[in-house]
């Protein structure tokens, strides 16, 4: 019989059909970050053992990103429908073995390749519709990157608006915020095909990005509105105290993750 | 710390956020099947060890389905955007330990919950845009389920038309075709987060459906057109000899799969 | 120079590029209707001179439809993405010159050909995302057309859920409701390219359908939920008293409308 | 009865429901232009009386644009799903009464408000899926605006890829090309509701933009691939000789058009 190839299914004789190719995966895009504080208990209940609360246990970041991504040969850049995607995600802080950690607890994205790449990294991705203002340098149909410029972003899923965010720019700063600043600590859980058995995959992993670059970071006053959905629980992280908003363009490469703990129970 | 719940991510304190709930999953829908023969070598190169060719090794089925699905409590039926989806898929035959087997080698679907359910079952799903004629009983804007009625279906992905299919109905028959008639034998492959390590999951599984029901099956003359895409290889299964087309409505429940072989290599 | 052809733009030497072909347009589909009463003043303020209130001036119908449509040669039936579309619309009653009239005041549809056909007929169409339960005859993933079966439908636009509707079936009846039962009386208003000038087109038209067919009509108990959107006003027609819900499959042909009054002011 | 308000349907007591508000409409976005020559007869057959061929009668421009747009109060900027859209269009040259003219002969856009604004201006818009590379300043997932950077764009409609375009950047230049440089001369044709009558609207109009701004224009080597579709004829304008490609960001305001000739025949 044949040797099937492919980093992910569909497998084939060449591996060319794979939905996601082997890393490295390169990213360039724009990032809008809003930080706030919620009820710490709502964050703590989203941290699995052995993650412990951060020293600011109610801190949350909501991020919106408008990406281009590609593999080393950059082929997706010549077919932008395969390179561009948008996502919205919610990150909380934690501590792992005494070291600060970040963890994405909810995320929506608008392309299948990004959905699967996320699941490989332990991002709990669902599909959504994400929109994000682009700053402009000519014309009247967009904000400038200058004090007073307002950037807006929204995410919806299953025909329901979920989150609306706005940041009114004030000044260039040297921080992108702190909640999303640490290595991501995610749970990769994948069910068994026999649903009476324990999960086939249940591991705590840590991700690191390489070759991170960014432009100037703009800081400003944030606004955030959460709506409810029968299939979502992000609204339990409702804001109690707004902190700051940030906008910047970033570039990085994802190459490797590390399995910190394997929680699989042998069936 | 907390006990996180959920059959799939996102995990939460309640499990309500999961993209996919625990089975059983119930399905009702319409199914258009086209069977044909291609170069047997193109099928054989898609069969991993220890699957062996079927006794009709070049036989292929292309299927289009327009589904409603729900969990036991049927909640998705009250929000049809969460219940309805369409898919197109390509199935080949094989033999496993001397028993006839079916295997889905390429598949496209239009909702995220169906994408993840498929991956749990070893269907190599990508997102696509699927359209399928519905027979009608009044008016002039659709075929009747009667001799001469023509049913059409198409699938596209990443803004490219991939497959067009048509079946001209002839008669009611008692078969739905043979290629997709056997238990599905799928490879569940999921990469490690450390791409230098072997896959975290690599198993051969078998699926069985329960409580299968169907309406009359209509049989007819099929037509099939394949287009090329830089990211797809289904066109290697190009038709050499057309067989038959079938149309029917079906209902079934998926509950359990079985792990036949664990091919994981310890890293 | 050349003679450009086409029932609608884009015009070309052959007319084949037209977004919408010349009528007749044939329709077959499923129709869910919910009737209720709202504040009559909210209906009356949507009736232009010389339309007058109906004898049940607060009566409103919300309808959801899942269509196939085609021209005489039926070519769209062989490419279902060009034949199928869904729509949701709100109809009120009126009186014109003493005769009962129906008028569509808000409508959303999910394909461009249906959007333009609607504008030609005076339907004030916007794009939306419409979903509608399909009754099934096998399996557990859908209601049966029988007492107790529940049909649901939703419409969203610009990533916001607008309307949710449900009908719990009770019995076969001989009416499809009364609000949408009369000839449609619509305003065809199209702006001048010089926005300081009066509209280029401002006429009251009446539409009639031909060759109407239907299956049995099921009647039942309706539920209706309206949500708000910054760009919509349908919620002003909020229910005060629910009437009945209806489900049926229909077929008809649109061929001709009639201009009742030309309200154009010469610029 | 009431005074219905609205620049376009749906009309209401406030006018707030209109799909398109009264101009001015402000635009800011990125524009990729590819110029080439085709068979002049294919262009000439798309020019209605009294438009005459340009002095370079086979010259054609294919343009891709990624826009934000808003009304004077800029409200769409706070809800980017209502502000952002993409379009692809084909422009030819002509002469009107001895003066150079531009004319859009085919165009696809991805939002309903842009579709209707286009029809008001005589752009023969259909819906499509448009994608366009964005240049980046950080990371590896996009070209830089520098010699050798490659920008790509595609358009699809009804699940079929229609056009692929690429421009390899060479240098900053002072031209955006010539085919699209003149006032747009469009035919506003709108059918009668009585399809046996002549069109209700048939006029030749001229559009002018105000307050035009642009960034540097990059010029480079273009590539263009046309695909066929059963409902499109743009492929008749196939390239015989490639000219140049251009990339720039632009801003402008549309306020007013002018009716040059009314070709309506009284029914």
Any overview of this molecule?
4 copies of one chain form a homotetramer. The first copy, chain A, is mainly beta. Chain A contains 2 helices and 12 strands. Chain A has helices at about 40-45, 110-120; strands spanning about 25-35, 60-70, 85-95, 100-110, 125, 130, 150-155, 160-175, 185-190, 200-215, 215-225, 240-260. In chain A, strands 1, 2, 3, 4, 5, 6, 7, 8, 9, 10, 11 and 12 form a 12-stranded mixed β-sheet that branches. The longest helix of chain A is centred in the middle third of the chain and has 9 residues, at about 110-120. Chain A is globular and about 60 Å long. At the A-C interface, loops of A face loops of C.
- Largest binding interface between chains: C-D, 70 and 71 residues
Assembly type: homotetramer
Number of helices of chain A: 2
Biggest sheet layout of chain A: 12 strands, mixed
Q: What proportion of the residues of chain A form beta strands (DSSP E)? A: over 45%
Low-pLDDT runs of 5+ residues of chain A are none
Which whole number gives the mean pLDDT of chain A?
Answer: 96
Helix content of chain A: under 10%
Which overall shape of chain A is indicated by the principal axes computed on the Cα atoms?
globular
Order of helices and strands of chain A: EHEEEHEEEEEEEE
Query: Structural class of the helices, strands and pairings of chain A?
Result: mainly beta
Number of strands of chain A: 12
- Terminal-residue CA separation of chain A: 30 Å
Gyration radius of chain A (Cα, Å) is 19 Å
